[in-house]
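Sequence, please.
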């Protein structure tokens, strides 16, 4: 979503409920992080989830990574009201982004995986940037059974959104992976013990801990 129109439509859409649910699920899985914990949000977009995480983890540093300058411009505008310096937004791609820290105590991501043509890059980056034993929470769309179901999901959840957002949602549904495919990706990257669960009619939640 490099175009300002796309970024603005995404930022203005009503994702309050799903974003808050994701943060609640993430906080539950992350458990008791150390006071000095650093959390990485991969594919942070306009920064809503990153800032929610920072508020829920008042002692942690939270870094959001995204490849879209248009998205990050919105995220940094939102950050203007946050004055304690714990949140930073970084522009970079998966893989290859230069991050402020060598490792993170926890990693989260919402709706990035389906954008990547090489999903192994996503899991490899998580493995390379997470501290040993770090908790990982990823939410993403899963691919519907057929094109008609995809159209029905768009009609149900995005009927009142701008056309650009409806088109992006439809394309994302068709590009998304099935849970079984994600399990294969995890196995190929030697990330054992991760769980992949459907948590709605369009979302799956992936949780696990990096090897120690």
């Amino acid at each position: 979503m490099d175009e300002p129109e796309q970024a603005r439509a995404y930022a203005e859409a009503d994702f309050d409920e799903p974003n808050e649910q994701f943060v609640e699920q993430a906080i539950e899985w992350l458990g008791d992080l150390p006071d000095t914990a650093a959390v990485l949000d991969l594919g942070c977009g306009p920064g809503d989830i990153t800032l929610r995480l920072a508020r829920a983890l008042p002692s942690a540093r939270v870094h959001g990574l995204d490849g879209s300058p248009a998205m990050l411009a919105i995220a940094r505008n939102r950050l203007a009201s946050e004055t304690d310096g714990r949140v930073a937004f970084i522009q970079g791609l998966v893989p290859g982004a230069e991050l402020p820290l060598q490792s993170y105590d926890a990693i989260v991501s919402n709706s990035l995986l389906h954008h990547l043509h090489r999903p192994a890059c996503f899991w490899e980056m998580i493995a390379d940037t997470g501290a040993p034993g770090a908790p990982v929470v990823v939410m993403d769309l899963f691919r519907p059974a057929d094109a008609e179901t995809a159209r029905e999901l768009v009609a149900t959840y995005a009927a009142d959104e701008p056309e650009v957002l409806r088109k992006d949602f439809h394309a994302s549904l068709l590009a998304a992976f099935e849970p079984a495919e994600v399990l294969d990706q995890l196995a190929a990257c030697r990330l054992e013990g991760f769980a992949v669960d459907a948590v709605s009619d369009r979302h799956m939640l992936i949780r696990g801990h990096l090897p120690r």
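The two ends are 35 Å apart (CA to CA).
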